[in-house]
């Protein structure tokens, strides 16, 4: 599902002493079938943008086109409800939204809301639970008796059960240990690769993750889109790196260090451990970085 | 919608009202509350309106913002008005709609009670808008101190209040986040029958409660870890100071109380 954001501004609590202009004149396109990462400093408007894409907030100005639906300041709740059917959203710390008596009931909540009968909903729920790697034996447990990691999976299953075409993730790996982060992200990648038009859009502060997974990066700064592009096109922009708005992923930091040591021009666009190792190996063979 | 609720919010400022001693504000509000309901003379209602308007205007808070935040509460005022309008059966019949009759006494009563409530809400909201929760609690604790001699746990009471006030905005944001999360899963809060709408709130209330309990526990642990053990022997970092302006304001409200009492007796 493709999303086009055109000249969108958003103000929280407009017209009072607490008014916050969270987004200013944002124009950006998220192509179908890709993984998009939204990055930027805290308070730069990432979460706000995500909520607008799902019709949870309406833009103060401008419009958003998502899979044939148009969201503007005067969109009706009914239309937004229809739009959300195809868009799943995983909030930060999604385990906080669990409420039902059993995990199964909680995962079935979404499908039931969108008019599935219990049988279909249950089928979808078990499929979603399987995707998140939760054993079916947990389905009858109360979600409040699960471990933190299991709770997060259950909550994610509750979103996947909607069988969305687009997944919006707000810092999905926040507060997990490295292994847990890796597993959760693998789950989403696998989900995306199952069908060609599945689109993944995630907010993250993790540059390693961004560099490895994203096809398209949007860098936000004070409510605006500062710049966008592929990982290679962004992490070769020295102006952004020097300004400190774009931290380097670890592999790039190592390469950058080597380049500085040997006074070679920086060449830091290798984002997996393997690519970085290849790059270093070729330098060793030739003698120096870029010599 | 929820972000406009003003109760428990503080708007920073340097106005006269902001700088008053919280005890002066609390005591004045208390006098106002009691003596507004003592008399129903026009002069008293007029004086009350003037006091409220003066306080509102000198607080330097945008009227549009104030209006947005209080209009929800006005439903209560309207409700009170209509209750009195239809339930009081005094004076002449002004209007008859089926089984309901509006009496002139009801109209008057509705106006008087609704107007009093309105003034009270405005002034009470103004108090929290211009006083930090810390000041408010210090003020309450200080005013209640005499009761601690008869073993009323005034310190604990004040602490409970300040914690409650502190967490109102947090709870509101949290409610909103959870509502959004459930809406993203197709929950609809504004459709269907009343019963369905109420049921739709269950998926919001349960996480909200579970998180509140967790937070309360965390807070208690954090306080104990930092050696909190109740009010005895605790000193204060911030001392309240009663100034001339506080005496003046309080005297104005005393005068109002006197006026109210005088019209009642005289
Ligand atoms: N519910 C709200 N009410 C008022 N202001 C808000 C609200 N939510 C966010 N803001 C403000 O809007 C701006 C953008 O916030 P947003 O949550 O979109 O940032 P973010 O980029 O997601 O930050 P983070 O990385 O910390 O999650 C901030 O200045 C924030 O204070
Ligand atoms: Mg955020």
UniProtKB/TrEMBL annotation, chain A:
Main location: membrane
Membrane association type: Peripheral membrane protein
Pfam short name (any one): ABC_tran
InterPro entries linked to this entry: AAA+_ATPase, ABC_transporter-like_ATP-bd, ABC_transporter-like_CS, ABC_transpr_CbiO/EcfA_su, ECF_ABC_transporter_ATP-bd, P-loop_NTPase
Signal peptide: none
SUPFAM superfamilies tied to this protein: P-loop containing nucleoside triphosphate hydrolases
Lineage of the species this protein comes from: Bacteria, Bacillati, Bacillota, Bacilli, Bacillales
A Gene Ontology molecular function term of the record: cobalt ion transmembrane transporter activity
Protein family: Belongs to the ABC transporter superfamily.
Domain ABC transporter: start-end pairs: 3-247
Recorded GO CC terms: ATP-binding cassette (ABC) transporter complex
Location of the protein in the cell: Cell membrane
Protein name (record): Energy-coupling factor ABC transporter ATP-binding protein
Keyword Ribosomal protein: no
Keywords, sorted A to Z: ATP-binding, Cell membrane, Membrane, Nucleotide-binding, Translocase, Transport
Entries under PROSITE patterns matching the protein: ABC_TRANSPORTER_1, ABC_TRANSPORTER_2
UniProtKB/TrEMBL annotation, chain B:
Membrane topology reported for the UniProt record: Multi-pass membrane protein
Alphabetic keyword roster: Membrane, Transmembrane, Transmembrane helix
Major localization class: membrane
The keyword Iron is assigned to this record: no
Compartment(s) of residence: Membrane
Record field: transmembrane: 29-57, 69-87, 107-129, 244-265
Pfam families in the record: CbiQ
One GO cellular component term: plasma membrane
Identification of the protein by name: Transporter
Provenance organism: Alkalicoccus urumqiensis (Bacillus urumqiensis)
Source organism phylogeny: Bacteria, Bacillati, Bacillota, Bacilli, Bacillales
